[in-house]
Amino acid sequence: MPLFHRDSLSRSSRNSIADTNERHGTGLFGHRASHSSRSSYSGTSSSASSAPSRHSSLLRGRRSEDPAITSARDRVYRAEAAEKAADKALYESRKAVQEARNHVKKLEKEAREEARLAKIKQHHAKDISKRAKPLGRKFIDY
Length: 142
Hints:
By secondary structure, the protein is mostly helical. Helices cover 64% and strands 3% of the residues. It has 4 helices and 2 strands, in the order αββααα. It has helices spanning 11-24, 35-38, 57-63, 67-132, and strands spanning 26-27, 30-31. A two-stranded antiparallel ribbon has the order 1-2. Strand 1 and strand 2 form a beta hairpin. The protein is rod-shaped. Residues 1-72 are annotated as: Disordered. Residues 90-117 form a coiled coil. Keywords: Coiled coil.
């Protein structure tokens, strides 16, 4: 007996499968009819009007959708985009603030270092000035 024999299903189970296909009529990706229900459409198989529609049920639903629903969906999409842009702007703003604070800290550190060096220079200048004071005095002759 072959593995995929044509009469492997009983006649009653084939009828129940055909009945469920005829009742539901649509599948996940559009119209899906069984072979037995397709032959009941028309005697001519070449006519385009008797062929079932092959469009996705998702696209069909959008075309016949209420304008208020479409408008609401568009507003939600715009709000989501605006929120995303606001989040990005907030991130960029926080980043700019952090960079500015780091720059100010760097400037303060440089200013403290320059002040320290200026004090050292001032101290050295004072020492040199003390040493230079006695210069230029007149000698007393004995």
